[in-house]
């Protein structure tokens, strides 16, 4: 299930590395609700779309701000909606204006192509792996299959960065005092409709719970 969130413009400058603030807002909305996270995150958060940055800070574009949160846990999404109704404030003077829920799409192809809505982190043993490296595909696949198994699924998937995408790039993402180098590149996911829908919700790569690896069609 995916929750689309539309927001008002900011009244204070938005920090470039706003993800800790967004994560804090999410925790505020959830209250004491415990998602079925366990060892692995079962949700993903997109970038906030509509911010124009100048150096370390940014402001909202005239088109407004929007982002989404996806999870395999429907109660998780419902709890966020209730939290927003109680307190729709976020950070930098941003407030939630409107929300809408999107059900899981039906993925009827054996291989589906996705765009990334937040940078993809692939990290193993303190080493980064990027689009174009077969190891990155292998590690993304391995992590997703572990998440599937932990959630009780018998299915497996295969994930790979789009080898034909010409504008693949890397970007630095800072979360508090940790700096990570991530890829920006579409991906292909091969698997059953249920397993692909699972990936659509939980996101790909490492650290999806802090706002990395969100995907969409």
UniProtKB/TrEMBL annotation:
Q: Which keywords does the record carry? A: Antiviral defense
Record organism:
Flammeovirga agarivorans
**For the CRISPR associated protein Cas6 C-terminal domain, which residue ranges apply?**
105-215
User: PANTHER family from the entry?
Assistant: CRISPR-ASSOCIATED ENDORIBONUCLEASE CAS6, CRISPR-ASSOCIATED ENDORIBONUCLEASE CAS6 1
Q: Which gene encodes it?
A: cas6
- Pfam families, per the entry: Cas_Cas6_C (PF01881)
Spell out the protein name for this chain: CRISPR-associated endoribonuclease Cas6
GO MF, any single term: hydrolase activity, acting on ester bonds
Cite the InterPro entries for this sequence: Cas_Cas6_C, CRISPR-assoc_prot_Cas6, CRISPR-assoc_prot_Cas6_N_sf
Q: Which GO terms describe its biological process?
A: defense response to virus
Keyword Iron among record annotations: no
The record's annotation in Gene3D superfamilies points to: 3.30.70.1890, 3.30.70.1900
The highest taxon in the source lineage is: Bacteria
């Amino acid at each position: 299930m995916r929750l689309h969130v539309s927001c008002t413009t900011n009244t204070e400058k938005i920090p470039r590395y706003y993800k800790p603030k967004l994560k804090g807002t999410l925790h505020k909305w959830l209250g004491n609700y415990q998602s079925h996270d366990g060892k692995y995150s079962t949700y993903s958060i997109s970038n906030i779309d509509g911010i124009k940055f100048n150096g370390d800070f940014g402001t909202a574009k005239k088109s407004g701000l929007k982002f989404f949160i996806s999870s395999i846990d429907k109660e998780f999404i419902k709890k966020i909606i209730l939290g927003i109704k109680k307190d729709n404030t976020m950070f930098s003077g941003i407030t939630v204006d409107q929300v809408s829920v999107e059900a899981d799409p039906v993925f009827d192809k054996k291989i589906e192509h996705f765009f990334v809505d937040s940078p993809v982190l692939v990290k193993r043993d303190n080493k980064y792996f990027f689009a174009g490296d077969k190891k990155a595909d292998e590690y993304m696949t391995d992590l997703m299959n572990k998440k599937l198994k932990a959630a009780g699924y018998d299915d497996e998937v295969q994930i790979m960065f789009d080898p034909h995408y010409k504008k693949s790039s890397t970007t630095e993402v800072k979360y508090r005092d940790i700096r990570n180098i991530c890829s920006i590149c579409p991906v292909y996911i091969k698997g059953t409709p249920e397993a692909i829908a699972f990936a659509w919700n939980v996101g790909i790569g490492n650290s999806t719970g802090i706002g990395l690896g969100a995907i969409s069609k």
